[in-house]
């Protein structure tokens, strides 16, 4: 189509060949539509005209619409990629920042301004270490005190630390682990065998994502004498399988005796495949002790692990000892080992007791069950002969009260936990008076009358109805989060009367458990401990499919 300019349209030559006068010229109207003038003499084609000349076919309305939609989709893709990039950058900030020097004992960022806060280092020491590029060898003041037995907490809800610029909340510590679910990593998840349910981390999927997990049970050296670890291993696998986690294997370990540690080290080397390894678990589950035992075992074959032993994470009974991810160069073949901050769970006893009472919650020696009523050569005490434990209350220190509402005459309760918590039994009608009088004295923690005055008491009461399915074995365990567990045995063999038919017993046992707010109470299948556990424990028959997918356990 010939390009028409404005000058051409106004030229007299472009008018029809008629004799026009000045009078009728003003009545002439041009039928040609005005043409838009663009730079470089380009004109937007008129899509409404029927003819566009001899060039390539002009785009139709449908072509235009398709182009617009394609442009929109392309813009969406670009925006999506920009958001992804921003999100990745944000996640990388949450990851271990090696540019910021941290205390090798607890992972807290080094600082010189607040002396009573984590990460504090004397200014002269800091400048000297910085000058010689040795900041990674610095231990903060708090860690030095912890290593000498001082109980200094730095996490909200776990008593002792008043706060400040370096105060850390439980949510802050959890946030430091949030990047794990987006990374390709190998997770070593730790659980305390004494507090199995309380330290399990039921929402571990939110932290680990789909990453594979090596499941490690710690402190098995504390289990009662005569315990068959074959039974305990099977019991742990059964409990773990119900959680539907991506578990590769289960290991029963002791950081104290190094039992099972070599198996974990071998599994890590097998499954690491160049990935970083993160030690994950709840607060005070024994992560730092486990890492020290792991490095000691690996040092026999890996010189990198031997070098890493020089600057090991600090160990302490204080929940929240580790305040930030600690990078450890433990593998000669590549990849890093990270000690992570413990996940603080508000439902454990450690969240409610004073910092000075925390050591009382951690068993130091092998557990020995304390049973009630006590069986002896002379039988049981007179007050239990006719009605058993019915109508009595049992206090487990100042932290737990068990009211026996309805049990069989030969029912026995066995308490497994730290020896420092004394157990007292009184008639239920006198239980309230006894608690108020003896709290802080006989019933500890809390220790001392001063702490007892600020104690809120046992605010939560949970009523339990435990069904007796097989009187020949314990009915269940009642686990107290952060403390231990109580085995409920419907018919104690040492108390059993000859005229009782075990096959005919099918009753419910009723108990009322009182604990501080917000401590949780779990009812679970009984853990097979001591010699008796191996006698009554029954292995479940597995299908072929279950045998294929079920993780193996090692000790």
Would you spell out the secondary-structure blueprint of this structure?
Blueprint: H1 6-10, H2 22-25, H3 61-94, H4 123-131, H5 141-147, H6 170-175, E1 185-192, H7 204-208, E2 213-218, H8 229-241, E3 247-252, H9 261-271, E4 276-281, H10 287-298, H11 303-308, E5 326-328, E6 337-339, E7 370-372, H12 382-385, E8 392-396, E9 400-406, E10 412-416, E11 423-427, H13 431-438, H14 449-453, E12 460-467, E13 476-480, E14 484-489, E15 508-515, E16 521-524, H15 530-536, H16 544-549, E17 552-554
Parallel strand pairs: 1-2, 1-4, 2-3, 3-17, 4-6
Antiparallel strand pairs: 5-6, 7-10, 8-9, 8-11, 9-15, 10-14, 12-15, 13-14, 13-16
Helix pairs in contact: 9-10
Written description of the protein model:
It comes from Dipteronia sinensis. Residues 174-346 form the CP-type G domain. The chain is of the alpha/beta class. It contains 16 helices and 17 strands. The chain has helices at residues 6-10, 22-25, 61-94, 123-131, 141-147, 170-175, 204-208, 229-241, 261-271, 287-298, 303-308, 382-385, 431-438, 449-453, 530-536, 544-549; strands at residues 185-192, 213-218, 247-252, 276-281, 326-328, 337-339, 370-372, 392-396, 400-406, 412-416, 423-427, 460-467, 476-480, 484-489, 508-515, 521-524, 552-554. It has a 7-stranded mixed sheet, sandwiched between helices. A 5-stranded antiparallel sheet has the order 7-10-14-13-16, with no helix packed on it. A hairpin with a 3-residue loop joins β13 (476-480) and β14. The radius of gyration is 37 Å and the shape is globular. It starts with 5 loop residues before the first helix and ends with a strand.
């Amino acid at each position: 189509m010939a390009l028409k300019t404005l000058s051409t349209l106004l030229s007299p030559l472009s008018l029809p060949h008629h004799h026009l006068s000045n009078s009728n010229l003003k009545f002439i109207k041009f039928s040609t539509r005005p043409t838009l003038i663009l730079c470089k003499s380009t004109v937007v084609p008129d899509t409404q005209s029927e003819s566009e000349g001899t060039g390539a076919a002009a785009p139709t309305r449908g072509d235009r619409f398709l182009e617009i939609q394609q442009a929109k989709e392309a813009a969406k893709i670009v925006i999506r990629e920009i958001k992804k990039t921003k999100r990745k950058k944000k996640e990388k900030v949450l990851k271990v920042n090696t540019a910021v020097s941290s205390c090798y004992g607890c992972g807290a960022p080094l600082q010189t301004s607040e002396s009573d806060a984590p990460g504090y280092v004397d200014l002269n020491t800091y400048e000297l270490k910085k000058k010689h590029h040795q900041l990674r060898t610095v231990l903060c003041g708090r860690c030095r005190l912890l290593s000498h037995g001082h109980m200094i907490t730095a996490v909200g809800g776990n008593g002792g630390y008043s706060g400040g610029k370096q105060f850390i909340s439980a949510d802050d510590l959890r946030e430091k682990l949030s990047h794990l679910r987006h990374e390709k990593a190998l997770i070593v998840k730790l659980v305390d065998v004494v507090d199995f349910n309380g330290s399990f981390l039921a929402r571990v999927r939110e932290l680990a994502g789909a990453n594979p997990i090596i499941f490690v049970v710690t402190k098995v050296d504390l289990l009662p004498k005569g315990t068959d670890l074959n039974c305990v291993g099977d019991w742990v696998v059964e409990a773990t399988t119900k959680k539907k986690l991506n578990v590769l294997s289960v290991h029963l370990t002791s950081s104290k005796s190094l039992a099972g540690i070599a198996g974990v080290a071998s599994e890590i080397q097998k499954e690491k495949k160049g990935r970083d390894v993160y030690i994950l678990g709840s607060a005070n589950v024994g992560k730092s002790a486990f890492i020290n035992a792991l490095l000691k075992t690996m040092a026999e074959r890996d010189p990198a692990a031997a070098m890493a032993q020089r600057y090991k994470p600090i160990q302490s009974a204080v929940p929240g000892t580790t305040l930030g991810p600690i990078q450890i160069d433990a593998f000669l073949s590549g990849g890093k080992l990270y000690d992570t901050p413990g996940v603080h769970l508000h439902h454990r006893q450690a969240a409610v007791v004073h910092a000075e009472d925390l050591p009382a919650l951690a068993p130091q020696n092998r557990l020995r069950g304390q049973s009630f009523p006590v069986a002896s050569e002379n039988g049981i005490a007179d007050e239990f002969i006719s009605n058993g434990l019915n109508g009595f209350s049992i206090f487990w220190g100042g932290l737990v009260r068990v009211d026996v509402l309805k049990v069989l005459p030969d029912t026995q309760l066995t308490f497994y936990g730290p020896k420092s918590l004394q157990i007292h039994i009184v008639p239920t009608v006198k239980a309230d008076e006894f608690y108020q009088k003896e709290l802080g004295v006989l019933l500890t923690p809390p220790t001392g009358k001063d702490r007892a005055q600020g104690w809120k008491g046992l605010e939560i009461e949970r009523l339990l109805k435990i069904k007796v399915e097989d009187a020949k074995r314990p009915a269940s365990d009642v686990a107290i989060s952060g403390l231990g567990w109580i085995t409920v045995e419907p018919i104690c063999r040492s108390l059993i009367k000859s005229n009782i038919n075990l096959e005919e017993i099918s009753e419910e046992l009723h108990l009322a458990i009182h604990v501080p707010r917000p401590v949780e109470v779990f009812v679970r299948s009984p853990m097979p401990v001591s010699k008796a556990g191996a006698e009554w424990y029954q292995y479940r028959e597995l299908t072929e499919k279950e045998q294929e997918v079920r993780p193996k356990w090692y000790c």
